[in-house]
Design brief:
It is built from 16 helices and twelve strands. With about 400 residues, the protein is α+β, with helices and mostly antiparallel strands.
């Protein structure tokens, strides 16, 4: 779907005349499970969780979402909303394997790829037109290759910058394609609700509504100084986004000074057990990417954003570098517990990251502790099994560390 429009020369200038694509797989975990078991087609499928315990939903099919079921929701709540839910065990190793297959497809079109998670990535396709044609053709080819080779659907947004590309990929889901030219950005943004702004959740939308701000146009017409006075840096940030201004480049793994994964919840979460389970999943993704690129890291950080826009970051630098999942997890969990003890309010966004990279050969050895060797071997075996068989044979429990 193309959306024409008028006006925003400043957008093209701020973005450096880039063409950015955001590729977002549709209900990724659930779609992989339905693909592998066609009998699930059309049913309200959720991945992960256990209705008989304090399980947490990892992903939900679009059929399940119609009942209000979403990721990070307690399983018991999900069952109350939809008694006919079909629960499927999570197979994160399989999803990681499929993610690599998707990455291989994306690399045909550009080497400048910034993964955000297993199921989404930014691509800088500014120079890809010489080989692949217009932006819309590139988007369609990406979607077609993913569908034909992996039997999965992706939604693609293409725009002059990251913010608009990510927003565009969500406008026509599932299986959407939205291309936004530089001179169409403002016309696209203006009528949308402020909740479409990256970083504006339900509580943010509620506070903006109290000021009479309900659409992106309302937001961009506000004096930026008044927004900054009321909301701080966040106010200035969302005002720029309302004008389609986002100059961030696409940063590849090889260029990145950190590796991180984060997730924004559809509803703020206060349950520490749920937050811990989500953090573990994010940590495993980060550690896997570290090992994939033969790197280790000194510093682990945890990022928490609350409903009032306050963002809390806690970091710890280890004595030696590591890419061992258990060690990163132990540090991340301690940081999370510390942060939640300081402020036990409901959380809107949770993330974990690592930085301070070394080559994997520089990992520090401990002559008096062979448990690290056992952990490295466990990670190596798990990674190898994942690559070969795509089955989640080894997975840590959040309570066990």
């Amino acid at each position: 779907m193309d959306r024409p429009g008028v006006g925003a020369a400043a957008v093209a200038a701020a973005a450096g005349s880039r063409t950015i694509a955001h590729v977002d797989m549709d209900a990724f975990y659930a779609s992989v499970e339905i693909r592998d078991n066609p009998e699930l087609e059309g049913l309200p499928v959720v991945v992960g969780g256990d209705p008989g315990k304090r399980g947490v939903i990892a992903a939900a099919s679009y059929e399940a979402r119609r009942y209000g079921v979403h990721s990070a929701m307690p399983s018991r709540t999900a069952v109350r909303l939809c008694p006919d839910l079909v629960f499927v065990p999570a197979r994160h190793a399989l999803y990681a394997e499929v993610s690599q297959q998707i990455r291989a497809i994306l690399e045909r079109f550009t080497p400048v790829i910034e993964p955000l998670a297993l199921d989404e990535a930014f691509l800088d396709i500014t120079s890809s037109g010489r080989l692949w044609g217009e932006a819309e053709s590139i988007g369609r080819r990406i979607k077609d290759d993913i569908r034909n080779e992996l039997d999965l659907t992706a939604s693609v947004g293409i725009a002059p910058n990251k913010f608009v590309a990510k927003l565009a990929s969500d406008l026509d889901k599932p299986d959407g394609l939205v291309v936004v030219a530089a001179d169409a950005v403002q016309k696209l943004l203006d009528p949308l609700p402020v909740s479409r702004i990256w970083g504006v959740g339900k509580s943010g939308e509620r506070r903006l509504r109290q000021l009479g701000i309900t659409t992106i146009r309302d937001l961009r017409e506000q004096p930026p100084c008044s927004l900054e006075d009321r909301f701080g840096v966040w106010g200035s940030h969302i005002w720029k986004l309302a004008r389609g201004i986002d100059a961030r480049p696409v940063v590849t793994d090889s260029e990145a000074k950190s590796i991180s994964h984060e997730t924004t919840f559809e509803q703020d979460i206060a349950d520490r057990e749920i937050l811990t389970e989500v953090l573990l999943d994010l940590t495993e993704q980060v550690a896997t990417r570290l090992r994939r690129h033969d790197r280790t890291a000194h510093t682990v950080n945890v990022k928490i954003r609350y409903g009032d826009f306050t963002t809390l970051t806690r970091a710890h630098s280890r004595d030696g570098s590591t890419n061992i999942t258990r060690e990163i997890w132990q540090t991340a969990r301690a940081l999370l517990n510390r942060a939640l003890t300081e402020r036990p309010d409901p959380v809107r966004l949770l993330g974990v990251g690592v930085s301070g990279f070394n080559e994997a050969t520089e990992i520090q050895a401990d002559l008096f502790d062979d448990s690290r060797d056992r952990q490295r071997e466990l990670d190596s075996v798990a990674d190898d099994v994942n690559r070969k068989f795509g089955a989640r044979v080894l997975h840590r429990g959040a309570k066990r560390g």
